[in-house]
Design goal:
5% strand; 16 helices; 49% helix; two-stranded antiparallel sheet; disordered C terminus; 3-stranded antiparallel β-sheet; mainly alpha
Length: 344
């Protein structure tokens, strides 16, 4: 065969194959965008796995849920987008750089003891932690957030500690774990619009007794355990680290527990309106929302969460959601059977 004949035969075979793949309407079926696993994505982006996971946690890298559940995956076009950004990969690595107390103090040009006081007062919030050889929690902070704090509150880096903050610290208050919980939950909520998954995130901050008081249906509690979003970041491997994570996840102050119970109630109402939790014998289980790609997205309108009690006015602490109206809050408290610390 001549070269022209070979080309004509190849073209005809290609056209026949294309025709076979078309649907009845004459259109080729849509092909899902290619995705890669997290480990492969971190390699292609030239970052360490821990840096990749933190970037996902912070919303810097968009991920999508795997079909049928499992670990989130990354679209190849998202990898291409990141590789085209100026300063790649150093700029991405810098945005997820974390520092401990000594490095943070050096970055802010203050004594480590003063930085610890600022962190305990809620002025800066840790993004993660690890356990040292004595199994003590060592908090880590984003270098970018510390730089922003220094520019925003320079008066707290020198001079006398404000009276309100000093009184709070002398009472033994420590906002580090609470702020870590708050930011972690907020970022998990940013990754899903499914009402039951959002309810599961709120439920994760309450111990089994508190959870059962708010969600009295055991089938709903079982469903919450199934649909809780899998965290890409913050999956400690050792048993000691898992135990520390489980302990730190739970709200431990009466005001924070109330705040979580109220927000859980609001999300649970929204989830029940969307669809019921599945029961034994249900055909196919409850209707599930297709996996959504994280990142910038428009959100459905939801009830405003209750306001968490804030840190002293000298510090901004973690960002706080807007407060609900007094009538709504009283109605929720009645539903929760909450008597408060001052009740007899």
């Amino acid at each position: 065969m001549t070269v022209k004949e070979v080309l004509r035969a190849h073209t005809a075979a290609h056209e026949d194959a294309s025709a076979e793949t078309k649907g009845q309407g004459g259109h080729a079926p849509s092909v899902a965008p290619a995705t890669v696993a997290a480990g492969r994505a971190s390699q292609e982006l030239g970052v360490r796995r821990a840096e990749f996971e933190l970037a996902v946690h912070l919303g810097l890298i968009a991920v999508t849920g795997a079909p049928g559940g499992g670990r989130p995956r990354v679209h190849e076009d998202e990898i291409a987008r990141l590789r085209e950004q100026p300063g790649f990969p150093d700029a991405l690595v810098e945005r997820v750089r974390t520092v401990g107390t000594a490095q943070a103090a050096a970055l802010l040009d203050i004594a480590p003891a003063r930085f610890t006081r600022l962190a305990r007062a809620g002025c800066v919030s840790p993004v993660t932690f690890y356990l040292n050889r004595y199994r003590a929690v060592v908090w880590l902070y984003l270098a970018d957030e510390l730089a922003a704090f220094a520019a925003r509150e320079p008066e707290l880096l020198a001079g006398r500690t404000p009276p309100g903050m000093r009184t709070m610290l002398e009472s033994g208050a420590d906002w580090r774990a609470r702020n870590w919980r708050s930011q972690r939950i907020d970022r998990l909520l940013d990754r899903t619009t499914d009402p039951w998954a959002r309810t599961a995130v709120q439920a994760s901050a309450l111990d089994p007794v508190q959870l059962a008081e708010v969600v009295d249906d055991p089938y709903e509690r079982a469903y919450l355990a199934r649909v809780r979003p899998e965290p890409v970041f913050g999956r400690p491997g050792s048993m000691a680290a898992r135990e520390a994570m489980a302990e730190l996840m739970l709200a431990d102050d009466p005001d924070e527990i109330l705040w979580r119970r109220v927000n859980l109630t609001l999300e649970l109402d929204s989830a029940r309106e969307d669809r019921p939790a599945p029961r034994p014998g249900d055909d196919g289980g409850a209707r599930a929302t297709p996996p959504a790609r994280t990142g910038a997205r428009s959100r459905a309108v939801r009830p405003a969460p209750a306001a968490e009690p804030a840190a002293p006015s000298a510090c901004t602490g973690a960002s706080r959601p807007a407060a609900v109206g007094r009538t709504t809050r009283k109605g929720l408290l009645a539903r929760l059977g909450w008597r408060g610390r001052g009740a007899g």
